[in-house]
Design brief:
With 463 residues, this protein is of the alpha/beta class. The protein has three domains: 23-137, no CATH class; 155-264, ATPase, nucleotide binding domain (Nucleotidyltransferase, domain 5, 2-Layer Sandwich); 269-454, 2-Layer Sandwich (Nucleotidyltransferase, domain 5), CATH 3.30.420.40. The chain is built from 14 helices and 15 strands. The protein has helices at residues 23-34, 69-85, 96-105, 113-122, 192-207, 243-247, 249-257, 266-278, 339-345, 359-371, 375-395, 414-430, 432-435, 445-457; strands at residues 39-47, 51-59, 89-93, 129-133, 155-161, 165-172, 175-183, 215-220, 223-225, 228-231, 261-265, 283-288, 292-297, 403-407, 439-441. α8 packs across α14, α10 packs across α11 (375-395) and α11 crosses α12 (414-430).
């Protein structure tokens, strides 16, 4: 067994999670220890369109007493980069031993089989591959992105599909004339017809409030390529032999409605909504709902085509970190920045959540205790705030940031303020240089709930 990374106890400990060990602190300790005598290692991640992310770091040289820590350090970086940027090919340049370790771990029968399958056939429809090479053989960075959204003229419909509710808005020349939220539970249904009917009903409801429909835009958790959901937790119960119906569902709705149609990852729409409201760029949007959804608009106002699936990116290196239910990995964002975090921390907070009700109702149950001043409930949101502070410092190593926009059902009410307060406390005390680079904020209450669908309406460009 390889030697584990040296972990660092945070100065601010989440009140309900004393074993939490932030990824950023372990990484920075490792980087400080290798700064002088370390040797270079380069990770390259290639995705569609020959776009490549190149990440350069240093590792302990062979023979160093801590050299075996290299394996975990690089593996956690590879994991993060795969789900943040996306890619079907990983280059490991500078260490054949580490390269072989990553190749075996991310093989079809390896410990990261989930990542192998999803980054290969399910997302990019290619065989996932690890290339072992010299440092100078890792391809140069090549990342472009595209301008998208911000168009609110004429009659538009925007929708947002979450795991607990679906939202839709009717927008006329930039003015919202109708919005609704409807509770649904897509993850519990295995018939594609259910999903189609729910989405079509939402669109038709909004259409009935408009004199006509000129364009439709949507957002949803998952990975979308050319309006096709390649991977989405909403559809996890759909049998493989019927998933083609989901693949083509939005194309079918587009053809039936007969207007320009665009659906993208809900995290990117979160960032777009922020860019539109702030009239600025370099924005990371994080939606805390049924999972952690994230999106990014770069400093030039471009959506980069990255996955931004921070739900699967490691943020806690504790060996006792919670297991992410879908991927089977531990310490990933979904269990820290979503209703999953609330449910996970509730027992330690002395809160028994009723069984036999929807996840949305469970979250509301805990939030009502929070608003009533329940001490344990307050500690849940304080813990999430501390998680966020350390994780934003971690994210800042991978994103150029001016703004971080936090929204989603978990931020409703006083919970959002507690999250921001906790995050700022961490950043100001532990990362004073980082906190100067970006501003964290919550949208107003209405925007938190329906802002996604409004921004989604602006996606299609009309010539």
């Amino acid at each position: 067994m390889t030697q584990k990374l040296d972990l660092v106890q945070p100065a601010l400990i989440p009140p309900l999670d004393p074993e939490y060990r932030p990824a950023i602190l372990a990484n920075r300790l490792f980087q400080n220890q290798t700064a002088a005598a370390g040797i270079p290692l380069v990770i390259g991640i290639e995705r569609s369109g020959a776009e490549v992310t190149r990440f350069e770091t240093k590792i302990f040289p062979a023979g160093h007493p801590k050299a075996e820590q290299n394996f975990e350090y690089i593996e956690r970086l590879v994991k993060f980069l795969l789900w943040q940027r996306g890619g079907f090919k990983a280059y490991i340049g500078g260490s054949p031993e580490i390269g072989e370790y990553i190749r075996k771990l991310y093989a079809a029968d390896g410990g990261r089989k989930f990542d192998h399958d999803f980054m290969g056939e399910k997302i990019y429809e290619k065989d996932f591959e690890v290339v072992i090479c010299d440092v100078d053989e890792v391809p140069a960075s090549h990342e472009t992105g595209r301008l998208l959204g911000g168009y609110l003229q004429v009659a538009r419909i925007g929708f947002d599909l979450g795991a607990s509710d679906r939202k839709v808005s009717a927008v006329m020349d930039g003015k919202v004339i109708y919005s609704e939220e409807v509770v649904w539970e897509p993850r519990k249904h295995d018939d594609p017809t259910y999903h189609y009917n729910e989405v079509k009903t939402a669109i038709e409801t909004a259409a009935s409030k408009l004199p006509r429909v000129d364009a439709i835009g949507g957002s949803s958790a998952g990975v979308y390529i050319d309006n096709r959901p390649m991977v989405a937790s909403l559809f996890r119960n759909i049998p493989e032999d019927r998933y083609d119906e989901i693949h083509d569902m939005f194309l079918r709705i587009r053809d039936e409605m007969g207007v320009p149609f665009e659906i993208i990852n809900d995290g990117d729409v979160t960032a777009l909504a922020g860019a539109m409201s702030l009239e600025d760029n370099a924005i990371l949007g994080i939606a805390m709902g049924s999972s952690e959804a994230a999106g990014y608009v770069n400093s030039e106002g471009r959506i980069m085509g990255w996955l931004n699936e921070l739900a699967f990116c490691p943020v806690d290196y504790s060996p006792n970190a919670p297991v992410e239910e879908w991927s089977g990995d531990i310490g990933c964002g979904a269990t820290y920045f979503s209703q999953q975090a609330v449910f996970r921390l509730a027992p330690a907070a002395g809160i028994d959540i009723p069984e036999g009700i929807t996840d949305a109702a469970k979250l509301k149950f805990v939030q009502e205790k929070l608003e009533a001043g329940h001490e344990g409930a307050i500690k849940i949101w304080q813990s999430i705030g501390i998680y966020l502070g350390y994780s934003l410092a971690h994210y800042a190593d991978f994103y150029d940031l001016k703004h971080v926009l936090i929204l989603g059902r978990c931020t409703s009410g006083s919970g959002g303020d507690l999250i921001i307060q906790g995050a700022m406390q961490v950043l100001e005390s532990e990362f004073p240089a980082v906190v100067k680079k970006f501003h964290i904020q919550l949208p107003d209450e209405k925007s938190r709930r329906v802002g996604q669908s409004i921004a989604a309406a602006s996606l299609p460009y009309l010539a």
